[in-house]
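As the work plan foresaw, our protein records have gained a structure token line. A representative record is set out beneath this paragraph:
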Amino acid sequence: MSQGYDPSQDGAKMSFKTDMSYGDYLKIDQVLNAQTPLSTAHDEMLFIIQHQTSELWMKLVLHEIAAARDVMTSGNFEPAFKMLTRVARIFDQLNSAWDVLRTMTPSDYTTFREALGNSSGFQSHQYRLIEYALGNRNKALMKVHEHRPELHQMLTDELAKPTLYHVALNALSERTGILFDPSVFRMEAPHQHDDEIARAWTLIYQDPAQHWTLYELAEKLVDLEDYFRRWRFNHVTTVERVIGFKRGTGGTSGVKYLRKMLEVELFPELWNLRGGL
């Protein structure tokens, strides 16, 4: 009679009394003990894990964007392409997560919604950092983090840095010889479409072979925003499906607020030039 497979016979280490294990390295105990539902509702665990995992993915997004910005600033674009591709795929992963949350019905959500109090994804400092790093800078939204000085400081520090798009525009200006008005480099306000920037990007798209690095950079940025927009759209759809047009737990207008966010363009020139090629 078979006794079953014994991994130790193939050399697998089986004792970790003195060595670091998988769980030790990943701090699994801390991660798995971070889910503390405030109600007895079955679906609250889904809600917590959905948002905690999203925050973990957003932490990686910030890690990749910061690294991409640094290498691009030094003029080394090729490594940034991989990082930006990774960011786009992370948002694809986050998109799939909405499919899981949508298995929660409106009736399910009402069983624990009161336990959330005024907490809301609107208050995610990491999401705000991502927006700031990409160029959608709305300083008024920092107020919600005033109760946490260290988080407020992180946002303040981000506003002092050039956005990812600023770094791309500096390279665009340098390589095309087209100078942009300094006012387009908004540090504490969302980026707005600029005709000269659009003209410079159009030159890149009209001759990709001669400007391949910037052409590839442009497409990486478009790819990133494409997946980011899908994530926002799926967020709106999921919220509407679960709570309809009720106000959000954080006091926003809920779906109406989220729909306004769909109108935001991170890199408008890269989208607007397409119709004129």
